[in-house]
């Protein structure tokens, strides 16, 4: 009797397209997998945790849909100082920098391994040094006293219902403490941008593609309203959240 042993490389499919050529690595006893992901107009090599207790290991399919939406609305991003919440692998921030040269700061749960992995992914994709990163656990005191970010973005961060009050607390702080950054017009790289925009300043722009119970999902939006925030659905499950007009 003849026995055959077959070996193959697994092929994964996401909304962003195909990625293959997996490479599993071990860095300081932390297992990772490197995958090529198709974003609009480019392929990014992203190192992901094989496991992370806070799901910072995964690049969710909604990230690719949000990237496409942002490409279609790129004029809304021009001249913005951006903070991303729940950056995970940093892939979306990398894509936005490489596509539009945006001023973007990443942030995620206060975990050194997440920060180091984001930095690794920036450098792997030709961005060195990596962009600024903030270690911040939602609901905790924010590490910076004043917010200069006029646009906060996030993709698929409503997974943990119990964290909604903490997320809303962080959002409220960022929106309420926002002060425009004064930039000298003689500074290198200074550009004048039209102050008119489809998005208010400051604003939180969030894409939410994952499906949870409608009652759970509504808890976040109702919580935002109770905290004095205004929620607008822009279509394609993208939401703009900002301070209610006084």
From TrEMBL:
Residues 1-20 form the signal peptide. It holds the Pfam family Methyltransf_16. Keywords: Signal. SUPFAM superfamilies: S-adenosyl-L-methionine-dependent methyltransferases (SSF53335). InterPro entries: Methyltransf_16, SAM-dependent_MTases_sf. This is Uncharacterized protein. It comes from Cuscuta europaea (European dodder). The lineage of its organism: Eukaryota, Viridiplantae, Streptophyta, Embryophyta, Tracheophyta.
């Amino acid at each position: 009797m003849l026995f055959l042993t077959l070996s193959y490389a697994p092929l994964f499919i996401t909304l962003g397209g195909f990625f293959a050529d997996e490479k599993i690595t071990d860095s300081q006893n932390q297992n990772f997998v490197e995958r090529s992901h198709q974003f609009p107009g480019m392929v990014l090599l992203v190192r992901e945790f094989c496991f992370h207790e806070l799901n910072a290991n995964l690049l969710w399919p909604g990230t690719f849909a949000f990237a496409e939406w942002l490409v279609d609305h790129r004029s809304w991003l021009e001249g913005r100082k951006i903070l991303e919440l729940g950056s995970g692998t940093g892939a979306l921030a990398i894509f936005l920098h490489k596509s539009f040269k945006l001023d973007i700061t990443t942030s995620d749960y206060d975990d050194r391994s997440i920060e180091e992995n984001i930095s690794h992914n920036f450098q792997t994709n030709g961005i060195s040094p990596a962009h600024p990163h903030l270690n911040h656990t939602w609901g905790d005191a924010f590490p910076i006293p004043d917010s200069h970010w006029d646009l906060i973005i996030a993709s698929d961060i409503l997974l943990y219902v119990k964290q909604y009050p903490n997320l809303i607390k962080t959002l409220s702080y960022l929106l309420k403490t926002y002060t425009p950054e004064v930039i000298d017009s003689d500074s290198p790289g200074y550009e004048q941008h039209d102050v008119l925009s489809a998005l208010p300043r400051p604003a939180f722009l969030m894409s939410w593609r994952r499906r949870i119970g409608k009652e759970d999902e509504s808890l976040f939006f109702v919580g935002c309203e109770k905290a004095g925030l205004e929620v607008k659905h822009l279509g394609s499950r993208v939401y703009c959240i900002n301070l209610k007009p006084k």
